[in-house]
Amino acid sequence: MAGAGIRVFSGTSNPDLAGGIAAALDLPLGAINVFRYADGEIGVRIEESVRGEDVFVVQPTCPPASENLMELLVIIDALRRASAARITAVIPYFGYARQDRKIKPREPISAKLVANLLTTAGAHRVLTLDLHAGQMWGFFDIPLDHLPCRMILGDYFRGLALENIVVVSPDIGGVKRAREFAEYLQAPLAIVDKRRDRPNQVAEVVHVIGKVYRRTAILIDDIIDTGGTLVMGAEALVRRGVREVYACSTHAILSPPATTRVLRSPIRQLVVTDSIPVPPDKRISKTTVISVAALLGEAIRRIHADQSVSDLFAKSRVMQSVAEGD
Known about the structure:
Helix content is 32%, strand content 25%. The chain has 326 residues and is α/β, with parallel strands linked by helices.
């Protein structure tokens, strides 16, 4: 954005990630004071001038989602009133994304409502990671930059040098994500077919589609919440003769009893990112956390310079082919 400098501000939901992004850009975090009034209302004060600047606000709307979302909206409004030239909401984890359609009569489409609220507050652009559903692109009336984490996760598993791997989607809805991950790792794809009675409950695994016998399976999902989907998928794969099961997910909500389930499961290692803070009590022995700060920092640099963000991934595919001698 010609003529403007970059300013990176952090809300309170993931300040460590915001600090990592600022470090990747070789910038200090912007001075901001986020506080609560006596009645619990959120107050914000921007402590430096942002007039005419290109501003990025890092705030995943993870649990408590409503608190963190409201805080983000108030920060955006404060920046708009302080005459920032452009405001980009950097939302590594987009809360309410699973409420993306009406399943029953008289239900809201909360993901669309949140998109509208961001625009109304004054956001000019949104940068996010691994949205839960593809149709959410159409919910926004402002530009949306969507970064998949398959390369970061894929590069980690490449470093493990696992043999005879198969990438597994834990449900039908995640097939596109798993297929792209499998293509990146140049591995075959399998799918766990299951029935779900209600949210956060997995009724049963019906069957596994694909060849998994005596392979090393990597389950991939965008969100691990209570852990039921991944754990039941891992158990089904073991029953079908898989040698080892690894699992990865971009967003580690890890609501109870997720950590207990994972510890007791056949999952050898659970790899997640820091799109959501992973506190010490959730970092069990099987958990590995990979930072997305450098990825988001490079995306911010490209947005500021009006360069293509999608070229990030095109460049990676070219480098992958060169490294493999194609």
